């Protein structure tokens, strides 16, 4: 599995944190993520606390997985906001999925502010034994 890297995302995050510009830049904010292999699948977990499930958009096109989400403030228009530190606005992340992953088997689950996406490893990418023939005796050996 390959991930799209953007060297400016970390700089944007630090700038937003320092200057308090959460959600006001033209670039979507990055969502923290963990990714790991578990058995015959890859698991990706995205932190999206406070995001309503209906604002999450997940799609795959040509082995590129795109996650979009939006967090809007919950206070009304007449609120006199004293502190606003929580990031809000649009969050986005793109991942390049390797050819060894089966994009037809992607599943997603959102619970407690964490979006979990699972992608199965394609059957043709699974490890398998290769038979080796011995031309001198005509016997077949199994590669261990």
Q: How does this model look, in words?
A:
There is one protein chain. The protein has 144 residues and is mostly beta strands. The chain has one domain: Immunoglobulin-like (Sandwich). Helices cover 9% and strands 42% of the residues. The chain has one helix and ten strands; from the N terminus they run E-H-E-E-E-E-E-E-E-E-E. The protein has one helix at residues 7-19; strands at residues 2-3, 33-38, 41-47, 57-61, 64-71, 89-96, 101-111, 114-121, 131-133, 140-142. The protein has a four-stranded antiparallel β-sheet, with no helix packed on it. A four-stranded antiparallel β-sheet has the order 2-3-8-7, with no helix packed on it. Strands 9-10 form a two-stranded antiparallel sheet.
Please give a quick description of this structure.
This protein has one helix spanning 7-19, and strands at 2-3, 33-38, 41-47, 57-61, 64-71, 89-96, 101-111, 114-121, 131-133, 140-142.
- Give the CATH class: Mainly Beta
**Total number of distinct structural domains:** 1
Shape-level CATH architecture:
Sandwich
Taken from the alpha-carbon principal axes, the silhouette is rod-shaped
Please describe the biggest sheet, giving its number of strands, its sense, and whether it closes into a barrel.
4 strands, antiparallel
Number of strands: 10
| SS summary, helix count | 1
- Roughly how many Å is the radius of gyration? 22 Å
Helix content: under 10%
Structural class: mainly beta
Topology pattern, helix = H, strand = E: EHEEEEEEEEE
CATH fold group: Immunoglobulin-like
Average pLDDT works out at 80
Strand order of the largest sheet: 1-6-5-4
N- and C-termini, Cα separation? 27 Å
Low-confidence stretches: 21-25
Report strand %: 35-45%
């Amino acid at each position: 599995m390959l991930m799209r890297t953007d060297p400016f995302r970390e700089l944007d995050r630090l700038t937003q944190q320092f200057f308090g510009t959460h959600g006001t830049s033209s670039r979507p904010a990055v969502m923290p993520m963990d990714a790991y292999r578990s058995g015959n699948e890859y698991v990706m977990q995205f932190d999206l606390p406070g995001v309503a499930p209906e604002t999450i958009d997940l799609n795959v096109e040509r082995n590129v997985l795109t996650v979009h989400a939006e967090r809007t403030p919950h206070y009304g228009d007449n609120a006199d906001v004293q502190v606003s530190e929580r990031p809000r606005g649009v969050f986005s992340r793109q991942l390049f999925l390797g050819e060894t992953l089966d994009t037809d088997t992607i599943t997603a689950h959102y619970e407690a502010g964490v979006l979990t996406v699972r992608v199965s490893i394609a059957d043709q990418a699974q490890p398998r034994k290769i038979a080796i023939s011995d031309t001198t005796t005509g016997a077949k050996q199994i590669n261990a």
